[in-house]
Specification:
Radius of gyration: 24 Å
Helix content: 25-40%
Strand order of the largest sheet: 4-3-5-6-7
Structural class: alpha/beta
C-alpha cells in the first residue's frame, strides 16, 4: 500500500510503463515518461534548494506540464500550491507571500505579467520556465531554470529506455514522438526520495479558499489524508486501467484531486478538459463523446449547461459509466432530465468541503419525491464518521436539524499560518468530554433521514456556493470597503438554479462622488477572481 501520493505514479509506471497517463488536446504522455520527467524535475528542485515541506507554486494553465510539476514537487519533498491563472495578479502576489513560495513553475508569458508586481520583499527567488524556447535573461532578478535543463538533467530514478525515441517538447506541452507504445515490460527501479524523509502525515498540497477576513485561507492536506480519499474513490467507483477520466476542474479546486490521483492509482488515463470548452456546451458534449470518457466529474452547473444547450441526444455516450457531481446543489428537475437522457449511467452526489475532500456520498438510483425536494448528501465515506450536533450541544435525533461534524482520516491538518482560524473549526469531539481527538466543524446544517442518509439544509454563516466555488460574502465586502469612495456596502446571495447563487452588492457612496457600477466592478477585479465579483447597485441608503 502506498504511503505517499507520488508513490501512486511510481507503482503505476512499473505496471503500465507505455500506457497513456495524461491527454492534453493532441498531446499525450505515458506513465513511464511522466515518472521520468517528474524525477528530473524533482532532482532540479532539490538542486535549487528545495527542502522538505517547502511550498512550491504552480502558476500554469491546466496542462501536462502542470501534472509533471505536481509529481515533481511531491517527489522532491515539497508542498505543491496551485495558483489560479485566472485570478487577479494582486491576489497571486498575496498567495505567494502568504505561503512563502520561494520557487514557482510557470511560463514566461504569465511570469512577465506577474513580475511587474513583485518587489524586493517577495520570497520568490527561483523560477522554472516550461517554455522550450526560453533562454536565460538578465531582465529577471530570480534564478531561472529552462525546461530544457530539466529534460536533459539526470533522472534520480532509473527508468526504462523510451520505446518510441526521445521526448520532444513544444511550449509548455510535452509531446510524444510517433511510434509504437506497446512492448514488454522490463525491470525498472523507482526512488522513494528517502533523502527528503517524507512521512505520511506531512503536507502534500495547500488549496486556497475564500476567507471571511478578506484573506484567503490555505487548506493544508497531508499525504495520508488525501490517500484515504483516493483509495476510497478508487474502490467505490471501481476505477480500471481501461477508464478514461475527465479533469474539468482547475488544479486549485479540490475536485482535481480525484481526477489526477485516483486516475494515476488505477493506471487509467486522465483527459484534461480545455477551459474554453465549458463556454460552448455543444462542443463539450461532442468532446466527451469523441474522447470516450468513462467517468465524468464536475460541478452540477456544468452538467446543467450540457442539458440545456449541449444537445446530448445527438451524441453517443455508450462508454460513459459514471457521472459524479459535487460542489453545489443539483436542482432535481435538471438531474431528472439528465437521467432520462442518459439512463445507463451511474450517478453519484459527492459532498465535502475542501477541509475534508469528499466526506459523504449518495448513489442516485431515483429522484427523491418528498417535501424537501432535495437530494441527500448520503452517508460517510471510508474511514470517516459524520454526525450532527444540535443547538444544545447534543447529538441530533433523526429528522432534527444540527451542524455537521466530520471525524476521520481525510481531515485537513489546518489552515496555513492561521492557528486561530484552525482552532475554530478543528475542535475536540463534542460527544466525548475526555476526548482529545480533533473533528472538523463544517458550519453546514443537516438532518439525518430515517433511511440513514443525511440531507443538506444550508449554512449557518455567510458562506455560499456559486459555480461550485465556496465564497465567503465577508471577503467580498472587505474588498468593497477598500474602495475609498464607498461609505457602506453589503453583498447578498440570490439563489439561481443554474449556478447555485448569483452575487448582488448594494453600495452607498460618500457624498458628491460620481463613480458608477462599472468603476466598482473594475476595482473589485483587481483583487477578486471573476467568480467572486458581484453585480453592483448604487443606493442612497441601505435598509436598516
Amino acid at each position: 500500500m502506498e504511503n505517499l501520493l507520488h508513490q501512486l505514479l511510481q507503482q503505476s509506471s512499473l505496471k503500465y510503463p507505455y500506457k497513456i497517463a495524461v491527454i492534453e488536446g493532441e498531446n499525450k504522455i505515458t506513465y513511464q515518461q511522466l515518472d521520468l520527467i517528474s524525477n528530473q524535475l524533482a532532482h532540479n528542485l532539490i538542486q535549487s534548494g528545495c527542502k522538505k515541506s517547502d511550498r512550491i507554486g504552480i502558476y500554469l494553465n491546466k496542462s501536462i506540464s502542470a501534472i509533471i510539476s505536481i509529481f515533481g514537487i511531491l517527489k522532491a519533498g515539497g508542498i505543491y500550491v496551485p495558483l489560479p491563472t485566472s485570478a487577479p495578479l494582486n491576489r497571486i502576489i498575496s498567495l505567494i507571500e502568504d505561503a512563502e513560495i520561494h520557487i514557482i513553475i510557470t511560463n514566461e508569458k504569465q511570469f512577465k505579467s506577474l513580475d511587474k508586481f513583485l518587489d524586493s520583499s517577495s520570497p520568490l527567488n527561483t523560477v522554472i520556465f516550461t517554455d522550450n524556447s526560453f533562454t536565460n535573461s538578465t531582465n529577471y532578478s530570480q534564478q531561472l531554470i529552462n525546461w530544457q535543463e530539466i529534460l536533459h538533467s539526470v533522472s534520480i530514478a532509473p527508468s526504462l529506455p523510451l520505446k518510441d525515441g526521445n521526448l520532444q517538447t513544444m511550449g509548455e506541452k510535452v509531446l510524444l514522438s510517433k511510434g509504437d507504445l506497446g512492448g514488454s515490460k522490463t525491470n525498472q527501479t523507482t526512488s522513494n526520495y528517502s533523502d527528503t524523509n517524507l512521512q505520511p502525515e506531512d503536507i502534500a498540497y495547500i488549496l486556497y479558499t475564500s476567507g471571511s477576513t478578506g484573506k484567503p485561507k490555505g487548506v493544508m492536506i497531508s499525504h495520508d489524508a488525501s490517500l484515504n480519499f483516493v483509495n476510497w474513490s478508487y474502490n467505490c467507483f471501481q476505477v480500471q486501467p481501461s477508464d478514461r477520466l475527465s479533469n474539468h476542474a482547475p488544479l486549485h479546486f479540490d475536485l482535481s484531486i480525484f481526477d489526477i490521483f485516483t486516475t494515476i492509482k488505477a493506471g487509467a488515463t486522465v483527459i484534461l478538459i480545455p477551459p474554453s470548452l465549458s463556454v460552448f456546451p455543444l462542443n463539450l458534449a461532442r468532446y466527451i463523446a469523441e474522447q470516450k470518457i468513462t467517468i465524468w466529474y464536475s460541478v452540477p452547473s456544468i452538467l446543467i449547461q450540457l442539458i440545456l444547450q449541449g444537445e446530448l441526444q445527438l451524441e453517443q455516450f455508450s462508454h460513459l459509466r459514471h457521472i459524479l457531481f459535487a460542489g453545489e446543489v443539483f436542482p432535481l428537475k435538471y438531474l431528472k432530465q439528465l437521467m432520462e437522457i442518459l439512463p445507463n449511467v451511474n450517478y453519484h452526489n459527492l459532498y465535502g468541503p475542501t477541509e475534508t475532500n469528499v466526506c459523504t456520498y449518495y448513489p442516485v438510483t431515483k429522484i427523491p419525491d418528498d417535501e424537501e425536494n432535495s437530494l441527500p448528501i448520503g452517508k460517510a465515506c471510508a474511514n470517516l464518521e459524520v454526525f450532527a450536533i444540535n443547538q444544545q450541544g447534543k447529538i441530533a435525533e433523526i429528522e432534527e436539524i444540527g451542524e455537521l461534524y466530520v471525524s476521520g482520516l481525510s481531515l485537513m491538518s489546518g489552515y496555513w499560518g492561521m492557528s486561530q482560524a484552525t482552532d475554530q473549526v478543528l475542535v475536540k469531539d463534542p460527544r466525548f468530554s475526555e476526548s482529545t481527538t480533533k473533528v472538523y466543524r463544517t458550519g453546514d446544517l443537516i438532518k439525518l433521514k430515517k433511511d440513514g442518509n443525511y440531507l443538506f439544509l444550508g449554512r449557518q454563516d455567510n458562506q455560499i456556493k456559486s459555480r461550485g466555488y465556496r465564497i465567503d460574502l465577508g471577503e467580498i465586502e472587505s474588498i468593497i470597503y477598500k474602495n475609498p469612495n464607498v461609505k457602506e456596502g453589503v453583498v447578498i446571495a440570490i439563489p439561481d438554479e443554474q449556478i447555485g447563487n448569483k452575487l448582488q452588492a448594494f453600495v452607498v457612496l460618500l457624498p458628491n462622488l460620481y463613480i458608477n457600477t462599472r468603476d466598482l466592478t473594475s476595482f473589485c477585479a483587481k483583487y477578486l477572481p471573476k467568480y467572486m465579483i458581484p453585480e453592483f447597485e448604487i443606493r442612497a441608503s441601505l435598509p436598516k
